[in-house]
Amino acid sequence: METPISLHPWLDNGFAKGDPGFSGGTLVCACTDRPVKVRISGGIAHNHACGCTKCWKPADATFSIVAVTPHENVSVIENGDKLEIVDPTALIRRHRCRECGVHMYGPVEREHAFQGLDFIHPERFQERGWPEPTFAAFVSSIIEAGVDPSRMNSVRNHLRQLGLEPYDCLSPDLMDFIAAWTAKKSGVLTQ
Amino acid sequence: METPISLHPWLDNGFAKGDPGFSGGTLVCACTDRPVKVRISGGIAHNHACGCTKCWKPADATFSIVAVTPHENVSVIENGDKLEIVDPTALIRRHRCRECGVHMYGPVEREHAFQGLDFIHPERFQERGWPEPTFAAFVSSIIEAGVDPSRMNSVRNHLRQLGLEPYDCLSPDLMDFIAAWTAKKSGVLTQ
Question: Is B55 a catalytic residue?
């Protein structure tokens, strides 16, 4: 029997629900010396597992865990001099620690349905209680990172067992949200 | 009670399975005078309902019905002088009848997982028996054509009732196929 593919150390064996009262905390990078710290002064939303090749994830994880929070909730509080932007042309301007590589926050500044939101990785909170992930996005993209296509049934089944419905783009709610934004921008929808 | 949204006249009230022996036929545009005719000399695959805003669909339909066939199976046999390319820069080079607007075939010529395939609309076959659609793609995109986001639950439920699992991109099989093509091209997958 083949070794199961690790989705993510936080996910593989199930996970507890978050604390409904979670209202932010401090994200810390992986450096032991002068870690970057980013304060999130409010709740996070749309936490999910993501299979895209751009999101930061721990070594050996196949999926990242990623959520959003309004940009005004995000402030760098320590060692921000270690931050660099991964790809200034990307929609999500991911800011990573140049020493340990952990992505600390990624604002969407461009005109887009997600403008004004920052993407963050809740597993970097030093606090517990952040809302648990509720779906899996960009699942087919893990093949682009080297997962053999023959393993996809088992990966999707594992995600479903964990309550993380797998999608190859975002969830229907978010895809509808993006489409509605596009329709309002084009004038097709007016409300 | 709101009037249900018509998915497509061929779909709304259920549909029969195709003939497993279907091996092609003739696509005919909607003109009564000098209709364009395109011969498909072989089977078709991946037939599905598509909610994207680019695919041709009959008036009042919300989804198109679209499938693929290898390009070498496609030949224009009558009135090809009426064909024009909708958008020469698009991945799918859709050829439509400039009089009635029906899209007759759309080859993918660019380097892509679908290169060598032509997209066609099986409902334009003058013959019956073409394989029935088996899923629905780009469902959220119907909002971009003006469907109110509040109707999406009912649209997705209707598609599921018809056996057409709704996806907001392509089906998992096709998304995996595209990802595997990308992974081979980048060298991440070698087999």
Answer: yes
Residue ranges for the known binding site of A for Zn(2+) are 29, 31, 50, 52, 55, 97, 100
Contact B156 A172 (CB under 8 A): yes
Q: Residue A99, SS3?
A: coil
Q: Chain B residues with CB inside 8 Å of A152's CB?
A: 172, 176
Q: A115-152 burial by CB neighbour count: b if 16+ within 10 A, else e?
A: eebbbbbbbbbeeebbbbbbbbbbbbbbbbbebebebb
Q: Are the Cβ atoms of B172 and A168 closer than 8 angstroms?
A: yes
Which residue of chain A has the CA closest to B166? A172
> Residue A1: what pLDDT?
63
Q: Is the separation of the CB atoms in A103 and A56 below 8 Å?
A: yes
Q: How many domains does chain B have?
A: 1
Domain annotation covers residue A23: no
The pLDDT tens digits for A76-100 are 999 999 999 999 999 999 999 999 9
pLDDT digits (tens, 9 = 90+) for B122-156: 999 999 999 999 999 999 999 999 999 999 999 99
Any domain includes B94: yes
Residue B131 lies in a domain: yes
- Identify the CATH number of the domain in which residue A119 sits: 3.90.1590.10
Instruction: Respond yes or no: is residue B52 known to be catalytic.
Output: yes
Distance, in Å, from the CA atom of B80 to the CA atom of B106, rounded to the nearest integer, reads 14
Pairing of strands B83-85, B95-97: antiparallel
Tokens of A2: 């083949």
Name the pTM for this structure. 0.95
- DSSP code string of A124-145: GBSSS-PPPP-EEES-GGGGGG
Q: Is A169 a catalytic residue?
A: no
Q: What is the ipTM of this complex?
A: 0.94
pLDDT, averaged across chain B: 96
Kindly state whether residue A22 falls inside one of the protein's structural domains.
no
- Note whether A188 contacts B139, CB cutoff 8 Å: no
Catalytic residue among A44, A49, A55, A142: A55
Supply the DSSP symbol for A6. Answer: P
Residue A178: list chain B partners with CB under 8 A: 140
- Tell me whether residues A143 and B172 touch, CB distance under 8 A: no
Q: Which of B7, B40, B50, B174 is catalytic?
A: B50
